[in-house]
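Can you please make up a protein's amino acid sequence together with its fold in token form to help me picture the idea?
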Amino acid sequence: MKGQDVVVLLKLVSLQDSANGRRSQDLVSNLQGGAAYSVRNLESLLGISKTEIGASIKRLLSIGMAIKDRETGWPKPHRRDLYSFIVHGLKFVFPAEPGALTRGIPTAFAAPMLTNMLISGGTYIYVWPSATGRDIGQSILPLFRSVPEAAAKDDRLYEYLALVDAVRLGNQREVSLARDKLADRLMSK
């Protein structure tokens, strides 16, 4: 499994949420001249090449993290397995090490949708390095290099990726809150 596989899975979850009417406006705005789940559309939304997305989907199908929809043939994320992987294995497979101060996009509990959930004991926030970012914080390498741009296009994906980083980086209390929020979003759909 590669970091972009998690990003692709979370984008599939976001698209699935949109298709279920939770964010139909986002789905319409995310369609870039093709079906929502097409490799071409995923490439434009995620900034990951078609070849890498195709390989990622093959890996996800082969390990059971996604299944093909019987009616459409498009990949569907296996939400329960994704949740289990994020909360139990992700920080071991894709550990996050805070780096030097840099300009970037806030992540983990510094992300806008999570910012007031916990009072931080530290002075610096965590950010994905990005020239377009307006915040200064400790750099965190995202799961894939195009994550800051992909998150800017989809608020739901940004929220999922920020929660994933909270699991990767947080102490026990932060991880517990991130798990609860992920369970609410992934398991109740």
Summary: The longest helix spans residues 3-19. The two ends are 25 Å apart (CA to CA). The CA atoms of residues 66 and 77 lie 4 Å apart. The longest strand covers residues 101-106.
